[in-house]
Amino acid sequence: MYYLDTDTLTRAHGGNRQIASRIRQVGEENVGTTVITAIEILRGRHEFLLKASNGAELLRAQQLLDFSQELLQDNEIAPIDPQAASEFDRLRQLKKLKAIGRRDLLIGCVALAHRATLVTRNVKDFQQIPGLKVENWID
After folding, report:
1. What pTM did the predictor assign?
2. How confident is the model at residue 67 (pLDDT cuts 50, 70, 90)?
3. If you placed Cys at 1, which of 8, 96, 112, 116 could pair as Cys (CB 3.0 to 4.6 Å)?
4. Cα–chain center distance at 97
């Protein structure tokens, strides 16, 4: 299984050809994302809507929110389950991971728990998580 992180999922649905090619190679049924990525995408769209300064921005923000909700409905979303929570407890003890943001750590925990490969441009940070398989389909 391959889990796309926030940047990769956004670019995939923006029409990135490299990502689309890789998804075809591995099969759409083998590609999903994490609940953390879903939260990040929706949070960004909600903030854009709430900060819109005029009617045109409000309408654009609503379109993006609708698109994001459809996008997420089309993808398997891996939850925080007992295995991910266990990985989180284990990895929090590693001092070298303190520099990794909490959201990235949570994404890594879900991917580890489900034995998935994380697809991200942020290879540098995610490679610090022991045992996490990481690929970059963009660069």
Report:
1. 0.87
2. confident
3. 116
4. 19
